[in-house]
Every structure is written in C-alpha cells, then in structure tokens.
Amino acid sequence: MSDFYKKILENNKKWVETSLASDPNYFEDLAKGQTPPLLWIGCSDSRVPANEIVGAKPGEVFVHRNIANMVIHSDMNMLSVLDYAVNVLKVKHVLVCGHYGCGGIKAAMGNESIGIIDNWIRHIKDVYRLHNEYLDSITDENERFNAFVEINVKEQVFDLAKTSIVQSAWKNGQELTLHGWAYGLNSGFVTDLDVNVSSDKDLDNVYQLKF
Questions:
Q1: Which helix (H) or strand (E) holds 158?
Q2: Annotated catalytic, 64?
Q3: Among residues 64, 93, 97, 99, which one is catalytic?
C-alpha cells in the first residue's frame, strides 16, 4: 500500500474524530437526509473545492463537476443531477462557477489534440466561436483568457436557463435563481459576474446587457 493511500485513510480517521469531538451527533444528523439550498456546477479542477470556497458544511451544497463547468443539453449526468436538485431537493439557487486559469478553457483556445477530451472541448470552442470577434479584439493573451472564462460561465448560465427542468420550475412558480461566478485561484476570492436569473425575462435582460 502506498504512503499516499495510507495517509488519506489516516486523514479520514482524524476527520471523523475531530467532527465527533465538536458534535457527538454529527454523522447521525447527516445520515437523516439533506436539504441543501444550493446546487453547484463547477469545474473538476482539484483546486476549486465547492464547500470550502463558500464556507459550507457537508449537506449544504449539492455538487456537479466537469471539465470547464459546462452545461450541455445532451449530458445526462448533468441533467440527472439538475433534475434531482430542482425537483426533489428543491434547491433555491443554482450556481455555475468557473475559474481563472482553467485548463479546459485554455485548451479550447488552442488547436492541439489532447485525446478523447477533444470531444468535450469542442463544446467550449463553440462558445469561443459565438464571441470570437470580441475575444480576438483583446490583444493581451492573459486578459483574453480571463474574458473567455467569464463569457463561458455566462453562456452556461443561459444554457442552464433553457433546460426543460429549469423552465418547468419557473412555469410552476418554483423559487429558483441561477448565478454565475469566476473563482480566482491566486486569491481565493470569487467574482460575481452579475448574471442572476430567476425568470426568462431576467435572462433576456441580462443577455442584452452583458454581451
């Protein structure tokens, strides 16, 4: 057994002991069920831990992660998570969180073949194509990179709003607001991209203002 594997097993034991020391019923209470107010759709990057970024405890954030925090209408994994969060858990907020320095976004800005992930990155490239005139006008490569991260988040919020799941929730009068953030790896702070959408009307207004 590798030293790393032994270490993570030992870390689990320490975590359990620490949790029980602060609250003897900690795990018993968690096992009773979950009522998280938030669904987090984020990047798979190991440096972007959903719970820690917002200071949430276990049970407070329902999480879906993939390369570059994409909302793809044919992705049954994402749709299943969204459906469960909205229709069963009744979350009130869905947050798409991208991050500056995202490898998936960077790969979509180039033409190198990486492997099977090329098929996934194709979706990100489509976002660039929609906004290529604006992005290509940014001469500084790092600024263009950061702008693309933000634009991608916004587009995923809009795609999220157009899913039948979110549309049905709004039609039925369910309280549900969509948000878009960009997380700074080098600072720990998030940037609220000001795409807070709770209806189709909000979606149209935000889209006109932000692009």
A1: helix 141-161
A2: no
A3: 99
pLDDT digits (tens, 9 = 90+) for 81-115: 999 999 999 999 999 999 999 999 999 999 999 89
Architecture of domain 34-207: 3-Layer(aba) Sandwich (3.40)
CA distances from 167 to 40, 50, 158, 162, 195 (A): 18, 25, 11, 6, 17
Beta carbons of 79 and 103 less than 8 angstroms apart: no
Binding site per annotation, positions for Zn(2+) = 43, 45, 99, 102
d(CA 79, CA 159): 12
Cα 100 to Cα 27, 125, 138: the distances in Å are: 35, 17, 16
CA distance 18 to 12: 10
pLDDT, mean of residues 155-163: 96
Which residues, including other chains, have CB under 8 Å from residue 209's CB and lie 6 or more apart?
none
How does DSSP classify residue 186? T
Q: Known binding site: residues?
A: 43, 45, 99, 102
Amino acid at 183: Y
Enumerate the domain spans of the chain: 1-32, 34-207
| Catalytic, out of 64, 93, 97, 102 | 102
pLDDT of residue 198: 93
Tokens of 176: 């549900």
